[in-house]
Each structure stands twice: as C-alpha cells, then as structure tokens.
C-alpha cells in the first residue's frame, strides 16, 4: 500500500486540481515493471469509466470498451476483473486519500460494488464521505473539464433525494455552478444544467429556487438575442418553453414562441433549409400548446414557402454509369433467352427488389461514410415538406426505402431496354397481356375491357394517361386479392357510423402479399409494392399521381414500365382450388 501512495502522492494533495483518470493512468503506467496485486487493483480503479447513467452492468463505473469479435461480445476491463479483493482495496483507499477527486473515485467504486465486500453492506461512513467529495469537487472546481461538474451534479441528485440537509447543500452547489459562468459563455451544457434538472424533476425545488433559475436563463436569452446566434437562442428558448409548459404558464410559453418566431423572420443569414427546420420546431411547439390555430396556419405558410424556395435552390447532378454497349447487349441476350413465358417470368423476377442486398449495401455505406448517416434526411412531396428519415441507427427502414428507390431509378434504364426488346420480339404485346387479363382471377369481367384499353395506352406510348388510369386498377386488384384470401379490406369510419376502405398502404402490409407471391427470403413483394406505390420515403407513385402532386412530365417511360411490371405481377396470380388465392 505504501508503494501505491508514493506513486500517487503528487495527486493526493488537498489542493491538487485539474487532473483526470487519464493523468493517473499515465503515472501508474510507468510502474508496470513493479506490478503487484495491489497495483493491478489501482490500475483497474482508474481504467473503469464513470457515467451519470447506469451502464450495461447496472453500475456507474464500467468498461471503457465494449466490442464485438466474430459475434462474441467483449469488454475492457471485463466484469470478471472486479474481484472482492479489489473492492476491499478500494474501501481502504477511500478512507485514507485526501484529494476530493481521488476520494470520489474510490467511494464511487465501493458504492457500486459494495456487495462484493465480506458483509455485503455499504460501510457506514461511505454515504457522507461520498456526497461530501462529490460536492467538494464541484464547489472547488477540481475537474479538468468543467462539464464534468454537470455530470457529477446530475449523478448526485439521485443520492441526496431522501436526505433533506444534503439535498439543500446539493441545490446550493448546483446554483452556484451555473451562476458563476460568464454571461458571454456559449457553454449552454453548463449554465442550463440547473433548469434542465428542474424541468425533469418533481417537487425537489421550491418556487423561489425555480424562479431564480429561470431568471438566470432569461438573462442569457436576452443577451444572445443581440448576438445573432439563432441556434443557441433556439436551445435556450426550448429550455424556457419546457419550463413554462411544465408549470402551466401557457401565456409565457406562447409569448416566447412568438418572440423567437419574430427573430427568426428577421434573421437574414439563414438559408431556406435552415429556416424550414426551425419553423417545423416552432410548429410542433404551437401545436403542443393547443388553441393557437392561426399561429399554426401562419407557420405552415412559412414552411411551405421555405420548402418551395429550397427546391428551387437544389442543384441537379449527374452520376455516370460505366457500362459498355457490349455488356448491355450480352445482358439483353441473357434476359431474352428461352421460351416466351420463361422470358416474361425472368423479367418479372429480375425487377422485384432484392432486400437482403440493399441492406448489406446500407451497412457498408454506413460504415464507410458514417457522418452522412448521422443526420436526418428531409424529403418533399412535390414542393411541400414531407417525411424525415432519421439517422440510420434510429430509422433503418427509412434508409432502406431510400436505398431501394435509388436502386430502381438506376434500374429503370435497363427495364426500359428490356421491355423494348421483349416488345420487339413479340414476347410482350397487347395481345399477350389481353390473354392474361381475360384469365386473371383478380380482374372482374366488367373490368376486362377497361384494363385492356389502359394497357393499350402503354403500347401507344401515351404514358401520362397510362399512369393515371392504371393505378386505380392496380389498387382494385390488390383489394380483390386480399378479399379472396379472407382479409378484411374495410375499417370503421371515424364517427363509427359505417365503414370505409382501408388505405392501399395499410393493405400492402398484410403478410398474405408475400405468401401469395411465394417470395424468397431476400425479396419482399410487400416492401416492393409499398416503396413504389405508397411510401413517402420511396417512389410514392400512387399518392403523387392520385393527389395530383407529381409533375406530369415525370410520368415517362420509366414510371410507366415500373407500373406495368406491377400490373403484370398481379396478372400472374392464380387461384388455388384447395385454398384461397
């Protein structure tokens, strides 16, 4: 033990400040040649990482590294490295060290792992010493980085809740911690700590204490109103708004939103994309307050204007594909080999998206270009704001829809070439499709002529008319498919006075879609139909066309070919005499 004390004597001085666990590790690392069992316990003590939130071990001091090796999870240090002898060693250390940073470390370790002591109980003096050390570190600004003070204060909150005297002392230290920060400081993570804790706490603070905290933040809000830092102002506004809403001060919350909106409108350095995001934030807060429909409408007009301007500012870029004519000809020869029905089946299967490959590509891209997957992606419906695809770790399905859409946009060129070749050879014609229409179990007899006339529009290259007219027929066929499979296609109306049809997107989520088409594990007919027809993160052709949003000039050979592909897939459905469809 004496050897350990000598190693760390430069840190164990009551007034020693501005060091952290890495500085201690560096000193201990110089003594590896004299390694003893006690030294190994000391090294372990400073390797474990502190967090104010509970880690995977159920403690606050845990592994510095959690990884995966060939499917096996590993941790450094490992949970098995913490032995009863180590906890006993730390217990002796916290009783003898003087420096608050050292005392916090050893007390915290014993607090987490006390059950490994011989009597499996926390030492009687541990609580007082631990709380005092934590507050001394913050009060005396011992930390190397000031934000550590916030972490210690958030952690200490849970320890002092049932001790009124310690709780009062903790609140005093917290208030001093935030109020000592300069008014010009942009370290919002420090000076917002008290209000953030108040917003997430119940019945801990008196009204007087709450008012003192909100006044400090108001003072900072007024200061940063003069600096033009709109994003810092947004963060302060959000904190104050949360406080007003939590404590029922609705008018003050509204006044704050109106003030921020006014400053946003006057801010000239923001581009339309940035303003769009901030307007959406305001809209959500106005809606949360409730009762301000006119303000919501005004924000919606601003969002629409920002979205329109942002689309106008978007630049087109071309991505060349290096494919030789010989390669294309070889591919066409391969796809058009064999009997006509084989060629048709090959065409239908080839252009149903491979979900497994798309997921693998996403994982690769997320690892190679992680930053581009950490930010949300804003999508548009025509010239209006639409869905937002969140970061990859939160919204893998959204990214999958984007990836599948990118893939079919690249594939459309090859689909067009193949459809032309099939038509040229007579494998695909109006007569061929008419036979399939007449034999289809999904086309009622009174719709056969209608569907035949629609298909003729495709072969006449009247793509705009074809797209508009084929989509309702596709939707009808899908509804018939589900009805024949025993699936309900109705839902109660909102007023419960009758029924209405389920949406196409809802119908396409039924498992029977994949069952009927007997999709392999790497393909999903349900997913394919949804991202082509109804998902806002995908092509969304059904909604864009039926709601009159899509630019008619976009209804070209490629979109028509994709819709024809879906129609032909549905026409291939046959009825099983022993089961439903």
3D architecture notes:
The protein has 581 residues and is mostly helical. Helix content is 60%, strand content 5%. The protein starts with a helix and ends in a 10-residue tail after the last helix. The relative contact order is 0.05.
Q: What is the terminal separation in angstroms?
A: 79 Å
Strand order of the largest sheet: 1-2
Q: How many strands appear in the DSSP assignment? A: 8
Q: Profile the largest sheet.
A: 2 strands, antiparallel
Discrete helix count: 27
List low-confidence stretches: 314-319
Radius of gyration from the alpha-carbon trace, in angstroms: 33 Å
Question: What amount of the residues lies in strands?
Answer: 5-15%
Structural class: mainly alpha
- What is the average of the pLDDT values? 87
Give the CA-based shape. Answer: elongated
Helical coverage, percent range: 55-70%
Quick tags:
581 residues, mainly alpha, 27 helices
Sequence-ordered SSE layout with sheet pairings:
Elements (H helix, E strand, L loop, with lengths): L1 H6 L13 H9 L7 H11 L1 E2 L10 E2 L2 E5 L2 E5 L7 H13 L3 H14 L12 H14 L7 H14 L3 H16 L8 H4 L1 H7 L7 H18 L5 H17 L3 H17 L5 H18 L3 H21 L11 H11 L4 H11 L4 H14 L8 E5 L2 E6 L6 H29 L5 H10 L8 H12 L3 H22 L5 E3 L6 E3 L2 H4 L4 H6 L7 H9 L7 H6 L10 H15 L10
